[in-house]
Design a protein that fits this description.
The chain contains 15 helices and no strands. Helix 8 runs antiparallel to helix 9, helix 13 runs parallel beside helix 15 and helix 14 runs antiparallel to helix 15. The longest helix has 25 residues.
Length: 286
């Protein structure tokens, strides 16, 4: 029994040692200068790089080989390694990287959505919007929000995506002529901001955007409550005070607007929002 135990222990030690060797060689490009792995004979390195992808290996090691192959621009090998992996965040993210290497943006988008990895997606959405492809940017941002709603482990990511969706819907409303379509995008923007605020109620920029859209829709009472929450969130920010001053002017209460302006100027006289309010107050009737 004791010999059997020793034999099993030796076997697992050899297996683990072999896996460590394979991983180290596969990641040799990241090794420090003079490390033992840099002295591994090139023949052995080539043999490890060319291991048949059908050989059963742990998924973690398979990921190592796939990443290393992609780093060598060996897309064929990377695809073969990825094909042996079970569906997972890591597999989908690798498939996205492979698609980008091939110049296949559509497949990369689908893979990143499947992975729930929105960093690249958000950058791509921003580029679409900057190049005037607002509808394409909107469609993809909506897909991101839908995907992140299905992932309850990343509420902060959903909040960020919802905020960006609100901005895009608002931009689309500005670009639309007055009518039902414009109003629809305004309502969608408000809904997206509402989601962002619900998930991150202490995020000042979410509150300010939400309140501003409420103002755009004429919901002044609701906007005051939102801007009050923003002021409570960050008493040192002049933006909520400037926003409250703007609402006061819209209601015809110039005296209240001047009071908010005075307090906002004390906090941040150079703020764009404060300067806009100052201009409006100067233009208001006495």
């Amino acid at each position: 029994m004791r010999l059997l135990t020793i034999a099993v222990a030796v076997f697992f030690a050899l297996v683990l040692g072999s896996l460590q060797l394979l991983s180290s060689v596969a990641l040799r490009a990241n090794a420090q200068r003079g490390a033992w792995v840099t002295r591994v004979p090139s023949v052995l390195v080539a043999a490890i790089d060319e291991l048949d992808p059908r050989i059963p290996l742990p998924s973690t090691l398979r990921l190592v080989f796939a990443h290393e192959a992609l780093a060598r621009h060996d897309v064929v090998r990377a695809v073969a390694e990825v094909a042996r992996l079970s569906p997972s965040h890591d597999r989908f993210a690798l498939e996205a990287q492979i698609a980008l290497t091939r110049g296949d943006t559509a497949s990369a988008i689908a893979a990143y959505l499947a992975a729930g990895d929105v960093t690249w997606l958000q950058g791509h959405i921003d580029q679409l919007a900057q190049h005037g492809r607002l509808d394409d940017a909107l469609g993809l941002e909506r897909d991101v929000v839908i995907r992140m709603r299905a992932d309850r482990t990343q509420p902060d990511v959903l909040a960020t995506a919802s905020f960006h969706l609100g901005q895009l819907e608002q931009s689309r409303a500005y670009a639309s002529p007055s009518g039902p379509e414009k109003h629809l995008h305004e309502l969608r923007s408000l809904e997206a901001y509402d989601t962002a605020v619900g998930l991150a109620p202490l995020a000042l920029k979410y509150l300010l955007a939400y309140g501003s859209q409420q103002v755009n829709l004429g919901q002044l009472d609701a906007a005051v409550l939102t801007f009050d929450s923003a002021r409570d969130t960050d008493p040192r920010s002049a933006a909520p005070l400037a926003a409250l001053g703007d609402v006061s002017l819209r209601r015809g209460n110039v005296s209240a607007a001047r009071s908010f302006l005075k307090r906002a100027l004390a906090l941040d006289p150079a703020s764009d929002a404060v300067q806009r309010l100052a201009t409006q107050v100067r233009s208001a009737p006495p």
